[in-house]
């Protein structure tokens, strides 16, 4: 069996499909199989796939349109590789992607999955932004309390982990976020710092077409996670919880005006207190994470006099983690300073 199975669902992706498949065929790592699952496409997707004679490509056609989640779960069952890599039919994998992710998972058997950073391209293939996520397991666990923290088509997961943790159909359009939070409770997770995928953003993206439903289900995931801290947030608290992650999208600053600084500070202080009681996250990491997010908020709103909040700490362990996060957010902060 191949070392890696690349799972790519296909639905009316003819405009970009050949480029996506070519990017897999051009990988420097060659021990792979590409599982293409056509979910009832009505365009020329099937004709495009039929042009490829590579025996590493496995083509499966659904008799009817099953939808993305059922198609993904079906595809997971067809994968025979040690690792399963996700890939979308409109994105582009960079040549070293598989090689670098396989090397990481081979060298770190205690890690269950890893993603990568990505650039953002438009329908014409022009670069429009970048996506940078945290890399460290402890910080990623905290970040998942607020945000998905992984670019779905960049992830590579151990096959047994994904086969035992299928995508949940109750979380349509945020099935990836819900899956990451489950996996994070079972073992270590990581993102590689390297930019290894071009993520295509266009008017047909699921995230563009289903924004309202996505937001509602993300709120449900966040609310469920907050229960571990014995918190059931009201609407105002949920706003305070999410606002610092709404300041930027696809690496670009959003025009968001924030006035509720006192409420946000009080909410972050509440999170610190509850985590101290429950011990869900490392205390120093958690306080440093919230403080770093607060700095992003202050700089984006040009509130430079508010950068030392009540929940900040002079604890040297907190400060070390805090400055590590500030270095990570440096690329963002340069844009707003």
Summarize the structure.
43% of the residues lie in helices and 18% in strands. It is α/β, with parallel strands linked by helices.
Q: How would you describe this protein?
A:
The chain has 337 residues and is of the alpha/beta class. It folds into two domains: 4-209, Alpha-Beta Complex (Spore Coat Polysaccharide Biosynthesis Protein SpsA, Chain A), CATH 3.90.550.10; 230-336, no CATH class. The protein is built from 14 helices and eleven strands. The chain has helices at 17-25, 45-50, 68-78, 97-107, 137-143, 159-164, 175-184, 206-209, 211-226, 235-242, 261-278, 283-300, 316-328, 330-336; strands spanning 4-10, 32-38, 57-61, 83-86, 92-93, 111-121, 127-131, 156-158, 188-200, 248-249, 252-253. Strands 1, 2, 3, 4, 5, 6, 7, 8 and 9 form a nine-stranded mixed sheet that branches. Strands 10-11 form a two-stranded antiparallel sheet. α11 (261-278) packs antiparallel against α12 and α12 packs across α13 (316-328). The longest helix is centred in the last third of the chain and has 18 residues, at 261-278. The model has no long low-confidence stretch (mean pLDDT 93).
């Amino acid at each position: 069996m191949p070392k890696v199975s690349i799972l790519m669902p296909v639905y009316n992706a003819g405009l970009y499909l050949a480029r996506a498949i070519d990017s897999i065929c051009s990988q420097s790592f060659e021990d792979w199989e590409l599982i293409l699952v056509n979910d009832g496409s009505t365009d020329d997707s099937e004709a495009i796939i039929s042009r490829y004679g590579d025996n590493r490509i496995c083509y499966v056609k659904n008799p009817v349109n099953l939808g993305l989640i059922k198609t993904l779960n079906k595809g997971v069952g067809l994968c025979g590789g040690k690792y399963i890599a996700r890939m979308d039919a409109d994105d582009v994998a960079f040549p070293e992607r598989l090689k670098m992710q396989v090397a990481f998972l081979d060298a770190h058997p205690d890690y269950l999955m890893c993603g990568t950073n990505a650039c953002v391209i438009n329908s014409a293939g022009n670069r429009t932004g970048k996506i940078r996520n945290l890399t460290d397991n402890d910080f990623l666990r905290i970040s998942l309390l607020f945000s998905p923290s992984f670019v779905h088509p960049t992830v590579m997961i151990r096959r047994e982990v994904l086969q035992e943790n299928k995508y949940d159909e109750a979380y349509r359009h945020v099935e990836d976020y819900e899956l990451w939070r489950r996996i994070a409770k079972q073992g270590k997770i990581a993102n590689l710092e390297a930019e290894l995928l071009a993520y295509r953003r266009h008017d047909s993206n699921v995230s563009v077409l289903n924004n309202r439903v996505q937001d509602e289900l993300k709120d449900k995931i966040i609310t469920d996670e907050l229960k571990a801290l014995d918190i059931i947030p009201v609407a105002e608290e949920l706003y305070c919880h999410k606002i610092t992650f709404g300041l930027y999208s696809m690496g670009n600053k959003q025009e968001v005006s924030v006035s509720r600084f006192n409420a946000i500070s009080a909410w972050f202080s509440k999170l610190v207190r509850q985590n101290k009681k429950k011990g869900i996250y490392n205390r120093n990491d958690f306080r440093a994470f919230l403080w770093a997010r607060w700095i992003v908020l202050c700089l984006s709103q040009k509130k430079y006099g508010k950068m030392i909040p009540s929940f900040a700490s002079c604890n040297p362990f907190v400060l070390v983690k805090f400055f590590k996060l500030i270095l990570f957010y440096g690329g963002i902060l340069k844009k707003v300073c």
